[in-house]
Amino acid sequence: MNDLRFALRQLRKAPAFTVTALATVAICLGANLAIFAVINSILLRPLPFPQSDRLVMIFNTYPKAGVERIGPSLTNYYERRGNIPAFSSLSMLRDSTEVVGETGSTQQEEVMRVSPEFFTTLGVEPVLFDVPPLHLAILLGTAALMSAVSLVACLIPARRATKVDPMIALRAE
Fold first, then answer.
1. Are 82 and 72 spatial neighbours (Cβ–Cβ below 8 Å)?
2. pLDDT at 99 over 80
3. In this structure, are 36 and 59 located in the same domain?
C-alpha cells in the first residue's frame, strides 16, 4: 500500500509526466481494442449467413499469364453449374468498374455483378424480393416522394426570399 501512495505522490508532483503516461495508456488501450475488433469481426466470427462454414469460392489460375486468382468466365460458370455434384448451389460474382453518368462522363464506380442464384447460394433473400423492376406502384410512389421532397426543398428558400424587402437586399449587394 505504501508503494501505491508513493507512486501517486510522484505522479502528483510531475503533472506533465502523468498526462503523458495516461495518454500513452489510453492510446495503447484504444489501439488494442481496434485491433481486436477487426480480428474478431474478420477471423473469429462466422459469416452472417446460414451454414457459412460450407461456403467456398472457386478461382481460375493462369500461372503462365501471371494471374493467380481470377473469377470464372461465363463459360466456366455455365459448365460448372450443373456438373459438380459436391455443390448444392453454385453462383458467380465479378468485381469490375463501370462508367456512370451522362454520355461522355469519365466517372467510374466499382460494381459487383452476381448470378441469379447468388442469394439462394448464400441462403438469404434479396432486399426487394418478389418486386419486379418495373412495378407500377413503386415507380409512382418513388416519383411522388421525390417530387414532394424537391417541392419542399424549393418552397422553403422561396418563402424566405419573399419575406425580404427588395430594397434592403439590393443595398446589401
1. no
2. yes
3. no
Hunting for cell 495508456 — which residue is that?
Answer: 25
Pairing relationship of beta strands 108-114 and 93-99 according to DSSP bridges: antiparallel
Task: State which amino acid sits at residue 151.
Answer: L
* Model confidence, pTM: 0.43
Residues 86 and 30 in one domain: no
The CA R_g of the chain, rounded to the nearest whole Å, is: 30
3-state secondary structure the chain: CHHHHHHHHHHHHCHHHHHHHHHHHHHHHHHHHHHHHHHHHHHHCCCCCCCHHHCCCCCEEEHHHCEEEECCCHHHHHHHHCCCCCCCCCCCEEEEEEECCCCCCCCEEEEEEECCCHHHHHCCCCCCCCCCCCCHHHHHHHHHHHHHHHHHHHHHHHHHHHCCCHHHHHHHC
Cα 37 to Cα 47: distance, rounded to the nearest angstrom: 15
pLDDT tens profile 19-42: 888 889 889 888 888 988 888 887
- Could you give the number of structural domains in the chain? 3
Expressed as residue numbers, the domain containing 107 is 52-122
- How confident is the model at residue 130, as a pLDDT? 67
